[in-house]
Specification:
5-stranded parallel beta sheet; alpha+beta; globular; 22 strands; 5-stranded antiparallel beta sheet
Length: 515
């Protein structure tokens, strides 16, 4: 074929494409209910839009200040009224600080927790913070750093609650279990064998024997299982510093023997889980937390194991509860009266709720329905305890490949979902932290993914461990700023006296708290 004919052919094709581009609908032609046929418009061809990613250089260039905290300080000696560490940190992060937001600017909605936090050193109690969320929290991401900072300042140790069976390994504890363990959740697809709606504080439980609805069908069978918990070098020293192992269980139809063994199989503790139809706790003191815990169970049936927990006797515990696929509207599906008892028994004072990424793929114009669902769940949680505080951590940025041109862009509904979460939080009397704005706002997730080193995974949804540490640092700064402000504004609540110890003739500091 002669060259001029090729040129004519290409010119005709180009003209036809330009004509098609000029008449093709900008929103595309629908093909059924789920698909659309799209084509570049003439304007998109002649004036291609360029996407601009958020500038996060300030976040990347501000170091995570782990080195300012000495983990070898005995946690009993940590003074919660000394703010030197946080002052050093906030001098670097002050320009990046994204403060908590409150309904009608009423900061007192967080006071019940801040009061307990302030009394912690004097009372020698254990208070819990439960960090609920979706897959953004899996592997103890974000939670582990918040836990580390709070335990470094206020005392405490351990990883907190762990599910026996989970779909993702946690970086805080190496967990291996026998193959007969099965996990049941209130979120996601519910197993029809589950009777009732008591799922425990992690909204899930595990069993090592099949369900028998009425009675134990075969009394000749003994079910055996094992759990191995080993210290992890991927976590902070305070997470590995625990003194108690706890087991939370229920619905035990027959007695189950349970024992703790060393790696050679020698029995360290021998115990039992008696039959029960109510929630029970098993607690063991752990003398050596540097060695693995090897736990064996044997019985005619399995209890519902709601959680294991590695704790200290006082200080702060921050539990990580990752609920893959959840949008934060599953709390009303579990027994709220049972959840209230769990929270009271475990002295839960603060809930962090971090959801949203599972709402994003269904792009809609209005998210009033989600706001109402989320509000109803928050309202139910608030009713469990009038002094229970809740902070809603808003959705992060989440990006998709651009429909036109190269690169990635934020889903168009991110801010609508964020606003729905914020409205639900304020309507129910909860605090709100805007993670979307804190990480840079619109089109910030591509900047996190493409940072050197990368701060997020290539699904443009989830933070990697490095990015999770930055998010954890920013949230901790926001929370501790509220605490510092509260202490400064209420100096009359703390009185420090220096007295003489008559036995040792030494001056000792005694802290008295007046509410």
């Amino acid at each position: 074929m002669k060259p001029y004919k090729i040129l004519i052919f290409m010119s005709i094709v180009l003209v036809l494409l330009l004509i098609l581009a000029s008449v093709f609908p900008e929103k595309g032609l629908p093909l059924g209910k789920e698909y659309k046929l799209k084509f570049l418009t003439l304007n998109q061809i002649l004036n291609p839009e360029k996407v601009e990613y958020a500038d996060i250089s300030a976040l990347i260039n501000t170091p995570i200040s782990d080195s300012l905290i000495t983990e070898t300080i005995p946690t009993d000696s940590i003074d919660p009224y000394s703010h030197a560490i946080d002052t050093m940190l906030t001098q670097e992060m002050r320009a990046l600080l994204h403060r908590l937001q409150f309904p009608a600017n009423d900061r007192s909605v967080l006071y019940p927790f801040l009061i307990q936090l302030r009394k912690l050193q004097a009372d020698k109690k254990l208070i819990r913070i439960i960090h609920y969320g979706d897959s953004q929290l899996e592997g103890d991401r974000i939670t582990s750093y918040i836990r580390y900072r709070l335990q470094s300042k206020f005392g405490g140790g351990g990883s907190g609650m762990l599910a026996v069976k989970d779909i993702v390994h946690t970086a805080s504890v190496h967990r291996d279990v026998s193959n007969n363990w099965k996990r049941y959740t209130v979120f996601g697809r519910r197993d029809t064998n589950v009777i009732g709606n008591v799922y425990g504080p992690m909204l899930s439980f595990s069993r090592f024997a099949p369900f028998e609805k009425d009675s134990i069908q075969n009394d000749s069978i003994d079910y055996e299982s094992w759990i191995k918990l080993s210290p992890s070098n991927l976590t902070y020293a305070l997470t590995r510093n625990y003194t108690q192992f706890k087991l939370l269980y229920n619905n035990n139809k027959s007695g189950v023997s349970i024992k703790l063994e060393d790696k050679e199989g020698e029995i360290i503790i021998k115990d039992s889980l008696p039959p029960t139809t109510s929630v029970k706790y098993l607690s063991w003191d752990i003398a050596d937390n540097t060695k693995p815990l090897f736990i064996r169970m044997k019985g005619k049936d399995s209890p519902d194991i709601y959680a294991m927990s590695l704790d200290k006797t006082h200080g702060i515990i921050v539990d990580n509860v990752a609920m893959r696929g959840s949008s934060g509207v599953d709390f009303n599906r579990t027994s709220l009266s049972a959840l209230s008892r769990f929270f009271k028994e475990m002295n839960v004072k603060l809930l962090l709720l971090e959801y949203g990424v599972n709402v994003v793929p269904n792009v809609l114009e209005d998210y009033g329905f989600y706001e109402n669902w989320f509000y109803k769940n928050l309202k139910s949680l608030k009713k469990l305890d009038p002094d229970l505080c809740i902070i809603v951590i808003g959705i992060s940025d989440m990006s998709r490949k651009r429909e036109v041109g190269d690169g990635y862009e934020s889903y168009p509904n991110i801010e609508k979902i964020r606003n729905a979460q914020k409205n639900a939080a304020f309507r129910s009397g909860c605090a709100f932290w805007d993670m979307f704005e804190a990480m840079g706002g619109k089109n910030s997730m591509p900047s996190w993914v493409m940072a050197e080193p990368s701060l997020a995974q290539k699904d443009f949804t989830h933070f990697n461990p490095a990015g999770a540490r930055i998010i954890g640092e920013m949230f901790y700064d926001a929370l501790i700023t509220e605490y510092d402000d509260y202490v400064r504004q209420h100096p009359e609540q703390t009185k420090t006296k220096v007295q003489t110890d008559s036995l040792n003739n030494k001056k000792v500091q005694k802290i008295e708290i007046k509410n």
